[in-house]
Amino acid sequence: MLVTSGVGDVIGHMAVTAQINPILLAWLVAAVIRVATGSATVATITGAGIVVPVVGMIPGVNRELLVLATGAGSLILSHVNDAGFWLVKQYFNMTVAETFKTWTAMETILSVVALIFIMLLSLVV
Predict the structure, then answer these.
(1) Distant-in-sequence contacts of 114-121, Cβ < 8 A, 24+ apart
(2) What is the pLDDT of residues 5-28, one digit of tens each?
(3) In-domain check, residue 45
(4) Which domain range does residue 100 map to?
(5) What pLDDT, in 10s, does the model give residues 37-50?
(6) Is 2 among the domain residues?
(7) Is residue 97 part of a domain?
(8) Has residue 1 been placed in a domain?
(9) Per the structure, how many domains does the chain have?
(10) What percent of the chain has pLDDT over 70?
(11) Measured distance CA(88)–CA(102) in Å, rounded
C-alpha cells in the first residue's frame, strides 16, 4: 500500500532536494517502519520498496550499501510488536523490562554500529 501510493517518489524527491545521503535515507526509512510496525521483515521489504526510486534519482548510488543500510535500519528498537522480542523473552525466561534492557538495547546498538560501518565502507567503495 505504501509503495503503490507513491510515497517512494515523494521521499525520493525530498532526498534529492535535501541532499540527504541515500545510505542514511535507507536506514532511516527502515528504522521508522520498524518502530511503527515492530517487524524487521516488513521494515526491510517496505523500506526497500520506498527507497528504490532514489536509486534512479541520485547518480553513483551503491545499491549493495543501500541493501545493507536497509537491513541495519530494520533491526532498531525491537519491541512488543516483534515476534523475536517474545521469543527471546520466553526462551531466556526474562521479564518484559529485562527484555527491553537487553534485547532491545542490543538490537539498537547493532543497528547504529552497522550504520556507522556502512557509512565508513561507503568512503572506500
Answers:
(1) 114/68, 114/71, 114/72, 114/75, 115/23, 115/24, 115/27, 115/69, 115/72, 115/73, 118/23, 118/27, 118/65, 118/68, 118/69, 118/72, 119/21, 119/23, 119/24, 121/65, 121/68
(2) 666 667 667 766 777 888 999 999
(3) yes
(4) 7-124
(5) 889 999 999 888 88
(6) no
(7) yes
(8) no
(9) 1
(10) 89
(11) 10
